[in-house]
Write a structure and sequence with these properties.
The chain has 211 residues and is an all-alpha fold. The protein folds into two domains: 85 residues, Rna Polymerase Sigma Factor, Chain: A (Orthogonal Bundle); 81 residues, Winged helix-like DNA-binding domain superfamily/Winged helix DNA-binding domain (Arc Repressor Mutant, subunit A). Helices cover 66% and strands 0% of the residues. The longest helix has 32 residues.
Length: 211
Amino acid sequence: MALTPGSLKGNEAFDESALVARARAGDAAAFTALVNQYERKIYRLAKHITQNDEDAEDVLQETFLKAYEHLEGFQGNSKFYTWIVRIAVNEALMKLRKRRGDRTVPLDQPVDTGEEMVAREIAVWEDNPEERYSREEMQDILDRAVQGLKPDFRTVFILRDIEELSTEETAEALGISVPAVKSRLLRARLALREKLTRQFKRKGEDVFAHL
């Protein structure tokens, strides 16, 4: 099964549960319809995590291949999309670990959410950054800030704030608790705010230096 991002067109009518039932019964066309529906989202998710086109394509392939191979094991206790998101996240993180020798905490390790308060540099932006930068520059700054997050924080941020999964869906997809999702999301947002504050301060100093 060869997949490329965007290679399949979505259907006008989409009933996930019905398609999953048909796919589990051996209907290959039903599984293809599921791929059509979600391949772009899975590719985008993989690209956000791996920051690499080739790795994202590999994750896309492996996600749907594994989903197809293990479809009988899908019990329907969660959405099919939540299930494949978990497969994709695991595949993407394995890519990162192989590439970087990443020793970060596994997703299924319990997280103590009673974390200490960390002093953060939360400056007030006196001018609106969107007024100072073009949309392309802003997107580039935001993308680089997200890339700089620790993988566990970045993954939660992507699922919640970019892919717009609910807290419960994110917890289910990652195999962690709801409090852990909330804790990681808070830390991700704080870290992003800090990074962006520093970025805009540096840019501001450079701008004013030439006035």
